[in-house]
Amino acid sequence: MKTKIKILSILVIFLFLIMPLHAGTTSPYIAVSYGETTYENGNDKAIVDNFFKEYVGMDPQTLPNNIITASDVNQISKGISGKTYNKNQIVSCALVDLSSNDDIEVYVDPDYITTVTPTMYESALNSAGIYHGDVYVTSPERATGESALAGVMQAYELATGKQIPSNVKAAANNEIQVETNIINENNNVNSEEISNLIIVVKQEVKNQNINNEIDIENLVINTANEKNVDITQDQAKEIAKSILETQNVQEDANQYSQEIQEVTQNNDNSQSNSTTQSTQNNTNQTTSTNNENHVNNLFESIGL
């Protein structure tokens, strides 16, 4: 009976001694968003996972993830273009990496994302108050990428724990939708021309605090003429409406930007302590080894 009590006591001591090895783990601030069509197809998901793993050096299956559904996309698109998607069309996937606080960088798989460019995603994310992090967008099959922004924003929410206001999401998605529609309708312009036009006008509207749609439309037309971007009057109107919507949600976008900035700053502080943590981990490992040796000696002392 006394031997059993000794064994139980030693096991409790052993568990207590090894517990510190697992302390101090921090969130990686990395998250993945899968299109539901891709997620439900094992082969397609493997293609996407391999793409992400190649870029970030981590297995996406070990990272926090969520699924972007047709319903998620339609809640946004129905109020913008009226376009709806079914569950077999949500193939684009995104990974967001906030492990550094660098300016935003967007990497789009050119083999599969056919329309939306890195600049278009970056501009739309800026409209949502997002200025930092690495964003990766891919698909297991060719897709325009216009529905992927919803997944990118969900990945940001998952990585930061901060929800993007719905009106800010709508404005950012509207920007992508307007750009995509113009690119599809107008053979005289390309993605970069349209996205750069919108970036320039957005900044000017912000600088001058313009809140009148007619004034914004005139600014769009004048800027397009200066840059030799061939758009129609109707397309200028659509761009102006989109930029006005972005301007109207700036207060909420700025608030969200401040919230995620606090998250990324905390992450930077964590990284600055990484050397100290590494040293502590080495100390813990040595202590653990010594503790295990001590426990083994205790077992031997009772003839086990």
Describe this structure in words.
The protein is an alpha/beta fold. The chain has one domain (30-268). The protein is 61% helix and 8% strand. It has a 5-stranded mixed beta sheet, with helices on both faces. β4, α5 and β5 (134-138) form a beta-alpha-beta unit. The longest helix has 28 residues, at 274-301. It starts with a helix and ends with a helix.
List the helices and strands and how they pair.
Elements: H1 2-18, E1 30-35, H2 36-39, H3 42-56, E2 65-68, H4 70-77, E3 93-97, E4 105-108, H5 118-127, E5 134-138, H6 148-160, H7 166-185, H8 191-208, H9 213-226, H10 233-248, H11 250-272, H12 274-301
Parallel strand pairs: 1-2, 4-5
Antiparallel strand pairs: 1-3, 3-5
Helix pairs in contact: 1-12, 5-7, 7-10, 8-9, 8-10, 9-10
List key phrases describing it.
304 residues; alpha/beta; five-stranded mixed beta sheet; 12 helices; 5 strands; 61% helix
Placed side by side, the strands forming the largest sheet appear as: 2-1-3-5-4
Number of helices: 12
Number of domains: 1
Structural class category: alpha/beta
Q: Care to count the β-strands?
A: 5
- Report the end-to-end length measured between terminal Cα atoms: 15 Å
Radius of gyration over alpha carbons? 26 Å
Silhouette: globular
Report a brief summary of the structure.
The protein is of the alpha/beta class. The chain has one domain. Helices cover 61% and strands 8% of the residues.
